[in-house]
Amino acid sequence: MVEQTVHRRNPDVSWRVIEGQAVLVFNIEGEVQVLNEVGTYIWEHVEDQDVETLAGNIAKTFAVSEEEARRDLLAFLQDLRKSGALL
Amino acid sequence: MDRIPDLRHFETDLAPGAVPFGVSVAGLTVGFLFPREVSLDPLVERYRPFLTGEEPAVAFRVAPGWEAYLEMAADRFLRLEERPLGEGRILLSHGFAAYRAGRRGVVRVSAPPPSPPFLQAVENVLRWTVADLALESEGFVLHSAGIVRQGKACLFFGPSGAGKSTVASLSPGCPLLSDDLVLLLKRDGRFLAATTPFAGTLPQGEKHPGIFPLAGLFRLRKAPEDRLEALPRPLAVASLAAACPFVTAAADREGRLIPLLEDLTGQTPVFDLHFTKSASFWSLLESEVLHGRADGPPA
């Protein structure tokens, strides 16, 4: 089963892309996280693309299969939700 | 149980004859008005090289408070919390509550001077306020040991226990900016590091306030041998942000800090310093950084 929702970034997480990598600062917890290139792509587009569209675009941009992109995307979104970066 | 004050707790008038006391950290000035019966001797002793009679950027009235605010943990660990209140923010610990809105504030302290809780309250309010004043003037404070070598500041940062005070103790004869909290300011496009009165675990001696160009920033890593490893810029920014106190408690501070860190890491190298907790790391820094042979900042 594939998620179709568009996600929302937690407004308590400030972020900035530096040399192609997103730096996330969790304002409440005081924690910091750096995303890799693919993670940064997802983070930048997570609010304006649903999961299917995002998976397709990741596959095209990073030259991986759609199946692999979808699987990794779902796992990554779960991690982001768990950490509180996504609502 | 925690006892959290509201704005009424900070409504206080000072009796006539209040005594002013001012501290300047590289031109960032914080003032206090104490009741006249308070002896300032322990504060004068503690902050002597940083005392100023200048008009403070932020002024606090100090008055007696409740017997306690935040509950002290069983291990006597002192919590320090910040939260919004009215048009300002409050800083709370076991023995004090401080409220600041704009250029004015009130500190309520549970214990009289010269008790340790009283001195700790003044110290924490100073740190809190200098951190904000720094961000207002293109600067920030970094949890780090700052040591001047060959006229340049080397800043060593990392969590508690990483070795900041150890590094400072292994640097006899080198001016110490602080072994806990160093102030960085951007002036004429370059970042400078300034001496602060904020002390960690080392005796601070008689500090000589000064401001120095930066040689490099070093995240401390205990290791079996001394080694330098340049940090990629995003990781450098993240690591530095994690070492800046108070910043993440308010989003507007973070909004100012991250661009500053991005700027800083573009002009100053940031390394992981794997070190053996002996003074031998200085040879490495002298050959690889202070003499300019290290990798420069990322393009």
SSE layout and pairings?
The complex is a heterodimer of chains A (87) and B (299).
Chain A: E1 13-18, E2 21-26, E3 31-34, H1 37-45, H2 51-62, H3 66-83
Antiparallel strand pairs in A: 1-2, 2-3
Chain B: E1 19-25, E2 28-34, H1 41-47, E3 58-64, E4 81-85, E5 88-92, E6 96-101, E7 104-109, H2 116-136, E8 139-149, E9 152-157, H3 164-169, E10 176-178, E11 181-187, E12 190-194, E13 211-222, E14 227-230, H4 233-242, H5 251-267, E15 270-275, H6 281-290
Parallel strand pairs in B: 2-3, 3-7, 9-13, 13-15
Antiparallel strand pairs in B: 1-2, 4-5, 5-6, 6-7, 8-9, 8-10, 8-11, 11-12, 12-13, 14-15
Helix pairs in contact in B: 4-5
Describe the structure.
- The complex is a heterodimer of chains A (87) and B (299).
- With 87 residues, chain A is an alpha+beta fold.
- Chain A contains three helices and three strands.
- Chain A has helices at residues 37-45, 51-62, 66-83, and strands spanning 13-18, 21-26, 31-34.
- A three-stranded antiparallel beta sheet of chain A has the order 1-2-3, covered by helices on one side.
- In chain A, a hairpin with a 2-residue loop joins strand 1 (13-18) and strand 2.
- In chain A, helix 2 (51-62) crosses helix 3 (66-83).
- The longest helix of chain A has 18 residues, at 66-83.
- Chain A starts with 12 loop residues before the first strand and ends with a helix.
- Chain B is globular, with a radius of gyration of 20 Å.
Q: What are the key terms here?
A:
heterodimer; A: 87 residues; Arc Repressor Mutant, subunit A; 3 helices; 3 strands; B: 299 residues; alpha+beta; 6 helices; 32% strand; globular
End-to-end distance of chain B = 52 Å
How many domain units of chain A? Answer: 1
Mean pLDDT of chain A: 89
Q: What global shape of chain B is seen?
A: globular
Largest beta sheet of chain A, briefly?
Answer: 3 strands, antiparallel
What sequence of helices (H) and strands (E) makes up the elements of chain A?
EEEHHH
Uncertain parts of chain A:
none
Low-confidence stretches of chain B: none
Helix content percent band of chain B: 10-25%
Radius of gyration of chain B: 20 Å
Largest interface: A-B, 19 and 19 residues
Number of DSSP helices of chain B?
A: 6
The helicity of chain A comes to 40-55%
Total helical segments of chain A? 3
> What is the number of strand segments of chain A?
3
State the end-to-end CA separation of chain A.
20 Å
Question: H/E order of the elements of chain B?
Answer: EEHEEEEEHEEHEEEEEHHEH
In percent terms, what proportion of residues of chain A is strand?
15-25%
Question: What structural class is derived from the secondary structure elements of chain A?
Answer: alpha+beta
